[in-house]
Design a protein that fits this description.
Elements (H helix, E strand, L loop, with lengths): L5 H14 L5 E4 L6 H10 L8 E5 L8 H6 E2 L11 E2 L1 H4 L4 E5 L6 H13 L1 E2 L8 E2 L3 E6 L3 H6 L5 H7 L2 E4 L9 H17 L5 E2 L1 H9 L5 H15 L4 E2 L8 H4 L15 H23 L4 H8 L3 H11 L9
Parallel strand pairs: 1-8, 1-9, 2-5, 5-8, 10-11
Antiparallel strand pairs: 3-4, 6-7
Amino acid sequence: MIGQSFAFLETLQLVKKTACCDAPVLIEGETGTGKELVARAIHYDSDRQEYPFIPINCGAIPDDLIENELFGHKRGAYTGAQSDNSGLISQAQHGTLFLDEIDALSPKAQVTLLRFLQDQLYRPLGGGEPYTADVRIVVASNADLEKLVRQNLFRQDLLFRLKIIYLRLPPLRERQGDVILLAMHFLKACAAQYGRGEKTLHSATVKWLNQYKWPGNIRELENLISREYLFEDGNVIHIALPTPSVTERRRCVDRRHIYSTSLDFNEAKSHAIETFEKGYLAEALTKTNGNVTKAAKLVGKERRAFGKLLKKYGVDKHLYCE
């Protein structure tokens, strides 16, 4: 777990405190924020570290097999059950069972898990006497479970059982300064794994990495760095920035307000001129792949005057480079 931002360090302190407790944990966060990594950190920093950490994706468990997956079965429990089979709970005995994408559980599966959490007793399919489990439950979701409860898509009583300790992982865009730290870590990992030498990032790439919103968070960053490392023949990685969509190119434009009568005539006129100029600059840069000299020539303006307009409206030419 790498980072130096306030949001990251605050989360790290909570993770350390959580490891010292032995209650169920709910981890929420966007896709790619490192929920399983945090779950593992909780386990391996706890008194259960010598015992198994068993991860399972709830979305991968068929609804009719949930009890078999969790509790296991005895020989002859059903057709094809030719031997005893331990379930996930038995495999995680004295350790931690990590249930990822807990929001994917069906209503039936939610009831099954709730019943187990009430007393940590379970009975394998086809079995007789119940077994007592000594397992810590850690669950994760990239959805807001409180919202799902309000929509009657998740049981409130199950949420109460799971949310004794709650951790929200901050998205990468909220972790100021951590993007480059992580990127450099991934570059070193690539060098060690693929043996193609140490590589660094171009200054323009560093700027873009810090400005990008990272909807896929750390996983998206890791994949990007790995791909660019492998494709770059030199020692400096200059990532070809994605071409912005029409919406992004004209992100400050809102045509609904150009002719709004809530503005007086002069204000409306100024707003319309600003809207036109921003869109015109964006279109010129798009056609010339961010080349200011060519864009100025294309629209019949001097480069210096064109540059002043870019500065005036805060238009970043790098967003238009392919």
